[in-house]
Amino acid sequence: MSSLNFIPFLTAAFLLLLYPSPHSACLLVPFPVLCVHLCFVLCFQAVLVPQLVRPLLLTSGLMFFHRFSGAAAFNFYAVDLFRAVSVTHPHAAAVTAGALQLISAAASGPLSDLFGRLPLLACSTAVMAAALAGFGAYAHYLPSGAKVETTGLTEALPLMCVAIFVCAFSLGLNPISWLLVGEVFPLEWRSAGAAAATAFSYVCAFVAVKTFVDVREAIGLGGAFLGYAVVSLIGLVFSLVYVPETKGRTLDEMEPKVGSILQEREETTLPASQGQKGSKG
């Protein structure tokens, strides 16, 4: 790291110590900005190395779709959401959703070892998109205003959508996103890459939770969850195109000898495309 990046920070600290008069208080205004600048330089010079760029983009993309898939809304606003769709016992429904999430998370490990990371991730994302679309459509066409009288069948529809979403999320996208954080980074840079991906994940979680109420007020409950369904569909395409299969690999095998593990998909598809061109010729 270049020593020039420390100059603004050290200069401000030196002046504050040298001139502790009331006039030097003006330096306290840009001082937090200088601290943020220093942290930014330190973090990104440590993380953005060639061996980390592609794995970091991959894991950050998964974390984005993980946080903006609607799971944050169900986790933090479950009771309010069940009340909004006229569920008779919203607290019991929220507890049931949490229990399903726990059971599904316990089953995710054996299933990922049995079927592989990528198939389970793709299937769970597709099922999540369908469940979100169903819940969003139900909320969109549900009359607003006074409490709606619902029958057993109509009340079961949003509960079914939420149960399917929670199970699919806990079986695939949620555990596999975190699992790949510990698998796709080179061994030498795994700690720095995992730290950066985790930090990005929690920033996305904060934004998703804080913006849900505003999004709901702007486009309605149905529109918000239909938007989450679209995000999940984009996440499905992202997974199919960019996520590698890591099943059956040890941590040493995942450490790249030449290039990144993410380049193997390109290397395996290249001979097939060349063979097709040769057969055509």
Outline the structure in words.
- The chain has 281 residues and is mostly helical.
- The chain has two domains: 3-43, no CATH class; 51-267, Up-down Bundle (Growth Hormone, Chain: A).
- It has helices at residues 7-18, 31-47, 50-67, 71-76, 78-84, 90-115, 117-141, 152-181, 190-242, 251-254, 264-280.
- The chain is globular.
- The model is unreliable at 1-7, 15-29, 31-42 and 256-261 (pLDDT under 50).
Radius of gyration: 24 Å
CATH architecture of the largest domain: Up-down Bundle
Summarize the main sheet: none
Low-confidence stretches: 1-7, 15-29, 31-42, 256-261
In short:
The protein has helices at residues 7-18, 31-47, 50-67, 71-76, 78-84, 90-115, 117-141, 152-181, 190-242, 251-254, 264-280. With 281 residues, it is mostly helical.
Topology:
Layout: H1 7-18, H2 31-47, H3 50-67, H4 71-76, H5 78-84, H6 90-115, H7 117-141, H8 152-181, H9 190-242, H10 251-254, H11 264-280
Descriptive keywords:
Growth Hormone, Chain: A, single chain, globular, 281 residues
